[in-house]
Structures are given as C-alpha cells and as structure tokens.
Amino acid sequence: MAIMERDRRSRQKQNTVPIDRLSDLPDSILTHILSFLPTKFSVRTSILGQRWRFPWAYVSNLIFRDDSQKSINRVLLLRKMQKVNTFCLSDDDDRYRYINKENGAQCKKYQIDTDTWITLAVERNVQILHLCYSSWRDEDFLLGLPGCLFTCKTLVHLKLESCGIIPVRVAVCFPRLEKLHLLYVQYEADESLPNLLSGCPVLEDMEPREETKGWKEPPQQVPACLLSHLRIIKLPNIGGEKHEFEIIKYLLRNANVLERMEISYPGSLSSNEENNMLKKISLFQRGSKACKVAFGAA
C-alpha cells in the first residue's frame, strides 16, 4: 500500500502544471508592480511571453540608473504612457565619468539628450524628479538645466545632486513643490537660492547641502514658504562660519511653522567648538515655538 501511494503521489507531481498567476493579473496591477523596478529591468520582462510584451510601456515611473543614452532614448521612443509620474536619472557607476573627460561633441551631445529628457518629463506633468550625478562631483563638467524645469507646475519633489547651476535671472514657478533637496549644486549668485525659494510657496521640506557657498547673505524679503509652510530644514556640514550663523538665524526667525531643523557639523570639530556652536544657536529667536533643533556630527 505504501508503495502504491508513493507511486500515485509521484504521478500527480509529474502531471502538475505550474500556474502562472502573475500573467492573469489585470494590466493596471502589472504596471503598478513594474513601476517599482528600475526601467531597464521593467523592459526586460517583455521577453517573458506575449502577455508581457507591452505592460512596461505603460508604466508611469521612469527610473534610469547607469543606463546608456541610446537605451534611454529607445525607451522614451517606445513607451505608450503619456503621463510621467516619476523621472529619476542617476549615474552611480564611475564608468560614466568618461563623458567629463571628453571635450566638445561628447559633452554637447549628453547635454542635449539630458535637456530633451527633462523637457519631456516636464511636458508629461512629472511630479517627482531626481537628477543624481554623484560620480561627477569632483569633475569640471557640470550639466546645465533647461529653463522649463523652473516653471514646472506639477512638480512635488525635486532632488538635484552634483548637477546644474541654479540661476538667478530666471522666473521660478513651483506652485506644488513640497520637497526640495539640493546636494552639491552650484549657484550663479548669492541671490540664486532666495530667488528659487520665492517660487516655492508651499515648500515643506528643504535640504540645501553646501548651500551656504551660494547664499552668503540672508534675503531682505521673506519667501512665502518660510512664513507658512516650511516644516523641515536640513543643514549639513555647518562649520561655524559667520555667514552660516546668519543664515540659521534668518531661517529660525522667519520659519513660522517650522517643526524641525537638523544641523550637522564636520566630525573634525572639537567638543569645545561644538558646544560653542550649540550654545550660540540655542540663543537665536524662533518664529515657531514648536521648532526643535537637532545638532550632531555628520
């Protein structure tokens, strides 16, 4: 009996056909699942079978990590979805640094392509835009930013890292921008960042890393976002310079609904320097009674 039962189970196992439950899901769920993948992996699902040929083309999130210019252009050409919810472009791989070393045509071609990609995202009502070129941080070549970016009325979260020059003579209109993270960007003039903030009336979360190199003096006018919306400010690498204290004082005094300011300082500071900085900052007037200041080493 035991042998017969074992043979029966063996035959059942051989006759069992694996069930493909994913392929039976509706298109809306498939595209939602694919939206969490980097775009190049989403595109690769098209080889799984007839059912998977086109779902990737309807994904509204475009996440390019170390993708070649050719592959990015091909994806943008073949995709069917008009709307772009998220557009992320990053180059964590050092192999992309060769572009910085080239003169003339190579840099110009990459700049033209990048302008085209950003413009397309803006025209498709992008809400989240991340441009991160961390491996280019120490290079001479710096990507420019198309003017249309600064008047994107649908943008909710903007992150720029090691790319772009923040201009001063440009109209800024970010009526929906809530999060602004600027890491290792360059500023055309001292007024660049204040001018940028003036066009962000509902900004709630700001991280201007290395921002004090481009914002030497507090602006005379107070941007609307400081008065009524800004709730979180992160200020990394504060070294105790006079103009840094002026900026901190200005922000604390005018951010009327600020809930938290996170200040980090270089680990090279002595404990005495750290205590003096903390003591000085604690005496600054605060426009928001609910504001808490977190102070620690980077």
TrEMBL record:
Residues 224-296 form the FBD domain. Gene3D superfamilies: Ribonuclease Inhibitor. It comes from the Eukaryota. This is FBD domain-containing protein. InterPro entries: F-box-like_dom_sf, F-box_AtFBL13-like, F-box_dom, FBD, FBL13/AtMIF1-like, LRR_dom_sf, LRR_FXL15/At3g58940/PEG3-like.
